[in-house]
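**User:**
If convenient, please work through this fold.
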Amino acid sequence: MSNAREIVVKMLTKTEKNNSYSNILLSDTLKKYDLSTQDKKFASALFYGVLERKLTLDGIITDNSANSSKKLSDDVRNIIRTGLYQILYMDSVPDNAAVDESVKLAKKNKNPAVSGFVNALLREFLRKGKKLPGGKDRIDKLCIEYSCPKWLIRKWMSEYGEDVCMQMLETSLGKAPDTVRINTVGRTVEDVLKILSDEGISFERSSLILQAADLYYSGSVESTKAYKMGLIHVQDIASQLCVAALDPMEGDIVADLCAAPGGKSFTIAEKMNNTGKVYSCDLHDNRVNLIRAGAQRLGLSCVIPMKNDAKLFSQDIPAADRVLCDVPCSGLGVIRRKPEIKYKDPREFQRLSQIQYDILKMSCKYVKVGGILVYSTCTLSRDENDRVVDRFLRENPDFESCPLGEIFGDDKNRTRITLTPGKYNSDGFFVAKLKRIR
């Protein structure tokens, strides 16, 4: 598996240098190399694992070396990270093998001293009994234990309280569920589940949503017969709950203004039994094409993919019964899917709330009197969630908050909700429901 390890080191270095999206980089990279299925699984697990645990691994490097990880070259740092990750978290790899393979990679470095340094650091960590650093204080300890930046820990503690913060930290690690939405246009849920079962795919039905299920499958969902037949699309339960709050009806006119790659538009269309019209919009042509391809695969003719700038009013979008405003956000609710997000400079997020407000303010112009407007994000940040909605309600008296609906159970009468991963094993998500009253 040495080739797989070398590929992972290159991907990790590229991610840091280019701010690459982990899922796209991994997919594109694995297509370039003739790796066995086993090696692909190993490379995927190691790549995502190191990204997820980067601060933990860097804390170990600092604790076992005179050099902090920042003083090492990118490749050397990532060789050590991969070695430490295998030692700590991959039971299938013997400790000696993890050290030896890391040293082999280090020997390819132009500096002959690098391999000795890598060997000494990894063996020192083993000699200490694989013990994690204790941290200078509680925040530092949590940072190392959960590989979460200190600024984010402080933010979540301040905004949501310690209990919710700890829940977020604990659920930010590990694999997210492979949840799908079953396309019931022209078929029943049972029909689709039988096709999945016949293919040997295990699943667990959602207790919340009849058309949702978590798949337990070693391959990609996109490779399944059900996916290729247009019977399912990938969608986290939080996104499905967002559409449930929107509550589209058959024959409705719906505008989904930040739609790509189109998952919520597809669920809207399915809930409407492929009647009415769903204007599914995005700013970029390539992303509009993703929506178009997805709608065609699912056989959803009521979805109208269109290019549109959500911050500008479009005469091509008619007055709508339902408008979904799922705005671009910091993505802090999906860090277990895209762990690189949590390492971004928080200053990159400072302008987002104004952009989000501008899109929400423009989105409301399409809502009919008596119509529904849902604002949502996949982040856990008061600035991007509650404060945007509070400002909108202050400045737009034609709208008022309204109940989320029966599907939210004990929360049905709430008008907004922050879905933390610990609640439904979903992505972190925010949903607010508004109604135009005049």
